Amino acid sequence: MKNGMMWRMGVAWGAALALLAGCGGSGTEASAQKAASVLMVDGWVQPASVDQGVSNIKSRSALVTAPTPSRVSLGALDASKTASLGGGIGPRQVGTARDVVATRAAAQTQQQLQWKPTATGGKVAAISFSAEGAYGLRLGVVVKALPQGTVLRVYSQANASKVFQISGQEVLQRIERNAQAGDTTLDGQTWWTPDTGSDEATLELELPVGADASTVDISVPRVSHIFENLSIPTEAELSTKINESASCHLDATCYDTYATERNAVARMLFTSGANTYLCTGTLLNDSRSSGTPYFLTANHCISKQSEAASLQTDWFFRSPTCNSRTLSSATVQRVNGASLLYASGAMDMALLQLNDTPPAGAVFAGWDAGTQALSTPVVGLHHPRGDLLKVSLGTLNSLISCTPTSETQFQCSGTTGNYYQVNWTQGTTEGGSSGSALFKGGTHVIGTLYGGGSSCTATTVPDYYGRFDVAFNAALKNWLSSATPPTGPTGRVPVYRFYNSAGLEHFYTSNVGERDLLIKQFGSNFIYEGPIFYAYPVEGSNQDSNLFPVYRLVDLARKMHLYTANPAERDGLIRAFPTVALEGTAWWGQAAPGNGAMPVYRYFNRSTNTYFYTTSAAERNYINANLSQQYLEEGIGFYVWADK
């Protein structure tokens, strides 16, 4: 494969492929053996060797020259809207919704996008949004259609050299996931940009060569105005810190007994209804120590897929030394959201799977799904008011039943139920602590924080935690406790997609080394579009007995690839074209639906004589509506999965 090499397969190649259409074989679905669930799992540490994926943070020097943006100013926020929602069972609100008239619909946004040519023959445009007095902005971007190869960037004009970059395909995929979860509201149609930490945020779009700017269907009807300062000041500025938690909180860095478990906890920032909130969540291990980033928090924090998609997490968000009141340089942020796996108000618990790989050194916390004895010593690790990590020490005093009386209030009574009553002997909790894990003896998760009246001035008032054992038996065991550990592959792997802006074709690989080599050596032409689906790296799984290989062929003369699941097509191409060679098995898919697999649709591009593969309904709709003369849909090539 060469950078920028474009070629034409010609009529003979296209005709041969048409004659060899189809996909062979189907298998039978394996039945899972039943076994008792594992009820207790220890934690483990994310190794430094784990693939961290591809960073979305780019240097402006390596990108297209920044365009002069159109400007949309929202002015100052009404002071009456800046009071956060504290207490009760609600998450801590730190941002509020603001409507944007200038970009409320696609037609108005098109007027703001002043397209300019790029040096490579594409187009670029940008819009700058500002809100006086904001500590941060999240743009609510509604995307319905984008040309192939579109790139979106987000940055502040004050720091334009540091850019968050994402492919249009990834954005559409995230919005599609919201729709698949049943959220067709405005929230479900929205991609929330990362918080810029500034009162201004710029949204930039770059289109590749040949893309029609008139087909861009994008709008920004809302922004979330962050009205609390979520940064950590220096020691000298401490007296003016806006988000300082109460004085009786204990710095978690001072308690090395919990040095392992504190690395499992992350500060959460998420958006719902264009309002932005803080909570706390905890990374969980599973019974196979598979490294799947399961993340536990409260249902009253995140209960919808659109909220999960907006999640940002701050890891190692604590002081570097005991009571130093400064932020550790080890702090790492992840901004790519999550998939919601389970949410229940019955014990106020939600399980997510993070889209990002947790940073090296993060701990997948252990858990205990057994019934807990009263008087058990317990530990809470949490981010009160979004502050640096704190620790609370106490005792599990009783079981109890809790019911909400309003959106932010609840009452508890009795000696049985889905919650634990906890009394603290040291420390307390506040808004922002919601969703944080309760650790038995400081080592194994047994619950998540629902709420309570505990404070520095009411240290004897209890807090209430949803019971992990109840949620585990209801659903969490389906993800966290594998009854039949796989004997073949350790799990599915992502298949990555690149758009060759010079060759106007796509390249697919499940090989991490190949992915990174393309980005390093050919990044100017090969636009990384992220993982588009998941498949198996090898054959053999007691869960997926219908697996079969997807082959990758290359035309050595023209350096272009074809992927096929049909052995007849594979062999026919090799016989018909001397320059075509089999590179091997690209990955293993499935020949028929089942086991949660989804179809991969194959298109033949008449203009370039190349092939395009997608699982995305949004991409299919765009092609069929705008490019039907160029792309011939050939049907389903094979089946793959949306996640690991």
TrEMBL record:
<dbReference type="Pfam" id="PF13365">
    <property type="entry name" value="Trypsin_2"/>
</dbReference>
<dbReference type="InterPro" id="IPR043708">
    <property type="entry name" value="DUF5648"/>
</dbReference>
<dbReference type="InterPro" id="IPR009003">
    <property type="entry name" value="Peptidase_S1_PA"/>
</dbReference>
<feature type="domain" description="Peptidase S1">
    <location>
        <begin position="208"/>
        <end position="485"/>
    </location>
</feature>
<keyword id="KW-0732">Signal</keyword>
<dbReference type="InterPro" id="IPR001254">
    <property type="entry name" value="Trypsin_dom"/>
</dbReference>
<dbReference type="InterPro" id="IPR043504">
    <property type="entry name" value="Peptidase_S1_PA_chymotrypsin"/>
</dbReference>
<protein>
    <submittedName>
        <fullName>Trypsin-like peptidase domain-containing protein</fullName>
    </submittedName>
</protein>
<dbReference type="Pfam" id="PF18885">
    <property type="entry name" value="DUF5648"/>
</dbReference>
<feature type="signal peptide">
    <location>
        <begin position="1"/>
        <end position="21"/>
    </location>
</feature>
